[in-house]
# Entry
Amino acid sequence: MSEEFIVAEDLDLAWSNFDPVYPLPAGCPFYVEPVGKPLNGLINALLRTHRQPPKYFFSGHRGCGKSTELNRLAANDDIKRKFFVVKYSVRDVCDVNNLNYVDVLFSIGAQLFLQYADAGRELRPALMKDLEEWRTSIEWVREKESSFETSVGGGIQGFFVSVMAKIRAEATTRNIIRQTIEPRLSELIEKINLIVADIEGREGKSILVIIDDLDKPNLEQATEIFYNNQTAITQPVCHIVYTVPISMFFAQEFIAIRDRKFSLPNIKLHAKNDRTSRYEPGYGMLKTFIFKRMKEDLIEPDAVDLVIKMGAGVFRESARIMQIAADSAIERSRDCIIKEDVERAEREIRSDFKRILQTEDYDILEEVYKNNEIRGIEKIGHLLHNLSVLEYENGENWCDIHPTLENVLDV
Amino acid sequence: MIEAKDTDTLDTRVLRLSNYLNRAHRHDKPSILFALYLSEFLRSDVERSLSALLKEQGLRVVSVDAGEKKDLPSFFSSIDSDDTVFFVHNIEKGFPEVLQFLNFKRENLVEDHVKVLFWVTEEELSRISREAPDFFAFRNRVVEFMEVPHVGETRPALVEFALEIEYKSLDEIKRSIELKEKLLAELSAETEINGYLLGSLGSLYEQIGLYEKSIDCSEKALKIAKDIGDRHNEGVCLGNLGNAYNDLGQVEKAITYHKNALTIAREIGDRRGEGADLGNLGNAYYALGQVEKASKYYEDALAILREIEDRRGEGNALGNLGNAYSDLGQVERAIKYYEDALVIVRAIGDRRGEGKHLGNLGLVYSDLGQAEKAIEYYEDALTIAKEIGDLHNEGVCLGNLGLVYSDLGQAEKAIEYYEDALTIAKEIGDLHNEGVCLGNLGNAYSALGQVEKAIEYYEDALTIGKEIKDPRIIDLCEKNLRSLKNSGD
# Structure
């Protein structure tokens, strides 16, 4: 990954700077704070004093900058002053394709333990002994059913590492581990809480666990984890930020957690039911997004406007359009992106949509196009997911179809 | 609304992919690209040009079959390096697992800066975007190659491809057959190219032992060649028919075809064809047991092939002379020919040929009673067959190893080899070898005194022999069955 963040003076570097798949590290000069500073709401909520350490559910539409914002959250000075931060991606420690709440809880315990050890710190000896005994009881049960070798060192550290590896990679062992731990879940939670208490006591800080990529499982698995086992996953006595699939926020079952949800909105570019209007703060922000990455004279003004419009207020989509447009300009030996290049990108993205959308989807798109309303989330969930419908919020939530699709509809 | 089509030329689009990958390489960026295609032929053409361009830029292309490597992200990680570009084929064969792996491990591709191009049809891409949406959200570009090949522009390449019949491995032959069958459907209006395609299918099917199919294609191709007055292809088709009938044991019929082919080759001055036809006639007389006549034909063929510097043909002719002299009992001469043939096939990198000649050397040493040396050659041949995925020759080697062990009196061990050979023959649908293996199993059980089992095998072999009308198998089985049943009475 490019570690240098230089404002591009030619299209070749601009192409590279608009890599659409790269979440920005905290402090990156390319970063643009979304209008309304949505992350501040979450930071403030975490900094407030709570009777019970709260659990927050963080989400946002695909490509709107979730991972970038979580990187910033973990690096925020106020957060670091108050918390010992344990941030990890569930994808690095579990099989996201087959995930249940036991895996999630176990990963919290394991990551607390391992990241604390990685920071060169030690838990109190009595707790280590306690964990060791617990491990022996688990491993004894485990080995009765399957004899797998523990190759990663010994002791409790090796235990966490090897169990995590097996949860991640081996289907049969994963089930055995789940079956072993599940009936004794209260023990696991108790151990997690003992680790939390010990670290908090030693560091004089609270603990904040941030788990990224929990928005990847499908809705069914997410429901199983966050709804059916909500009690279990809210039991650890530390602050936790869970990422969740955006569709969870729309489902009836999740009304209960709605006051604990934070979502990263898409950037509004026009007013509801008025496609001809321009919401200037949105345009201004995306111009900043573009010109932090390349010099202004590399693109003509009417091309910039079209990029922003077709990017629909989604960062990744805007970057993708810029990258395709840069590619197109380079291919035609231009040193400046013109509107025609952006129109090519628009066509390419429209073709991608046309391949995804099914006949019945067009009726829904047409309805959304006409009244900008979300009517029946069960019908448009998948369209929100593939970005053919985009949600915006300003006081009330409303939605619109992806701008590249406007000329596909019979309107 | 009608979308303005991408009007860029094919070359521009190939260059677009190549430049994209090259730029990604320079900036050390991941690239997830899709090439959308309609026509298999166009795809293979585009792929060839793109590969050449990438190689010029110092990039290494690694092709992956998604049907075999379903966990693509892990595969990429395992062999990725800065200058590697992956081409992913057959993604449909890996559905649905391949989609799940891509969707949930998409970050691995980004973290490892993987550069990958997926060759997909419209339907495949549609499923990827719907069923692996998180992965699809990471795509960089989709480049379309949706035209049906304009025969006008691509004719020379098409003809060259249609005529290609020399392949190194069985997999390649099968891929080529698949592609040619698809092209046949695509280009149904192109009579001349259809003729070439059918002609080469005739040869390819013959090479993998599907003789009926081979004959069917060759006859269709022959009709086209006659209709359009293509004497050259007429000769080729006659030759292919001859080969197929020879394989089926209908040798007289084969000889007629080859003689007609030879007449045409001489008439139109096609020296290459003449060499091939002479060699094929040699094969036919050899099959009839007229070995001296066969070797005369082989010598004539060898002279021509040397003259036109057809190294592959020369290797074949030398090998065949080896066979002939081995049968005539001139073993040393045979060995010399095989060794000469071996030098040539090694020089031209023909692993398939190398395996064949090694196998034949095994046979000679086996005839000389030097079982250990024979086993050594067979094992070498077997290794090559496995390496290049030549199941046919693998089966033959296994069968021959069985014969050696049978000669050494180790009937049980022989049976093991025969059974392995039988499995392969069944797998590839090689009825001839299946019949031979069954017959050999009959021999082995007969040697062990297990008469009932032996009869069973002979009867199975006989059924197949009759099915493929192979007189040798039929003769052997009927003779043995008669004697076993008589001795039982």
